[in-house]
Design brief:
By secondary structure, the protein is α/β, with parallel strands linked by helices. It has one domain: Flavodoxin domain (Rossmann fold), CATH 3.40.50. It contains eight helices and five strands, in the order βαβααβαβααβαα. Strand 3, helix 4 and strand 4 form a beta-alpha-beta unit. The longest helix is centred in the C-terminal third of the chain and has 16 residues. The radius of gyration is 17 Å and the shape is globular. Bound molecules: flavin mononucleotide (FMN).
Length: 194
């Protein structure tokens, strides 16, 4: 007898790109996932151009989803400013962490990042001096503090010199990755920290 497939996780993509008109990579990726029925996209710069984030709306969306994707270009070894503002204002003490703050326990956080540096620029010998997991440590630790599992990022390096075909192939791979996204044993790999 064939075992039933596990239920498909509900995925919320927080899309953060301040210059979508100038984007080659992230806008193509967002377009590629637009029709996936289990994926909802919050385009943060479209929703909150004045940085006036609707915290209740964002928290309600988080509660409705199993997997939270942060999709953004790497900006100064971090995320664009509005995504940082989103983290600061939505992941509140007593809600996301701290006493009574277990709202996100057991969910997954995953980053989908593009960067202009080439992969060989990372690591102690490279131009950037650190490997990618080290650069993304604040996000890893944020997830852990909220009791979420931080999964390995999907990374697109050398983004500004890639051919159109390479960009489209990456967008298609992103779509397939979210379409087939499977939930591992979340409880086993989360170290909590709340
Ligand atoms: C303000 C700013 C800061 C950036 N910081 C970095 C960086 O720290 N590391 C890096 O590799 N690329 C950096 N980049 C390059 C972007 O990550 C790159 O242009 C982007 O990922 C390409 O995706 P897009 O076509 O969707 O814009 C930066 C770009 C801008 C505008």
């Amino acid at each position: 007898m064939i075992a039933p497939l596990p239920p498909q996780p509900k995925i919320l993509v927080l899309f953060a790109h301040p210059y979508p008109h100038a984007s080659r990579v992230n806008v193509a990726m967002r377009r590629a996932i637009a029709d996936l029925p289990h994926v909802r996209v919050h385009d943060l710069y479209d929703l909150y151009p004045e940085f006036d984030i609707d915290v209740e709306h964002e928290q309600a969306a988080l509660l409705e989803h199993d997997v939270i994707v942060l999709q953004h270009p790497l900006y100064w070894y971090s995320c664009p400013a509005l995504l940082k503002e989103w983290i600061d204002s939505v992941l509140r003490y007593g809600w996301a962490y701290g006493p009574g703050g277990g709202s996100l326990q057991g969910k997954e956080l995953v980053q989908v990042v593009s960067a202009s540096s080439a992969a060989d620029g990372y690591g102690p010998e490279g131009f950037d001096g650190h490997d990618l997991p080290a650069l993304l440590l604040p996000f890893t630790r944020t997830a852990q503090l909220c009791g979420m599992t931080y999964r390995a990022p999907l990374f697109f390096d050398d983004a500004n010199t890639r051919s159109s075909d390479e960009v489209m192939a990456h967008a298609a791979a992103y779509r397939n990755w979210l379409r087939d996204y499977a939930r591992p044993n979340i409880a086993a790999s989360s170290d909590g920290g709340v």
